[in-house]
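Workshop exercise sheet. Pairs work together: one partner reads the sequence aloud, the other fills in the structure field after running the prediction. Swap roles for the next sheet.
Pair: D.N. / O.F.
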Amino acid sequence: MMKALLMTGLLALGALGTAVAQETQFIAADDRAETRLCLTAVTESWRSMDRTLNHSGYRLMQVSRELKCNDIPVAVFAAQYNEDPRMAKHLAKFSRDTIKQEVEITDLTAMAGQVRIEGH
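Structure field:
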């Protein structure tokens, strides 16, 4: 009985985490290249970021050091919202900011809902 209850609790917790992560929607505030880069940083793979960079006219070093997404450095923003840690690592190559790699369970509830993205 206790084993079944524990297993049910673990499955429910896993489903909750998946549901919360899937509920986050990123909405572009405008159609500027900087905003597209921010959106790519949180929703795509690091290879997609290279393609977006090529189309934007920016270089990785410039974006890593200067681009802020919602007033947060792009590498830190990617570490906070992108499930793939390789994106943050890729963006941090030239960044001067420290990226916190820890994720707490309370961060999942903070991600629920919509996030409006604006790059500058």
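Discussion prompt: The radius of gyration is 16 Å. What would you look at next?
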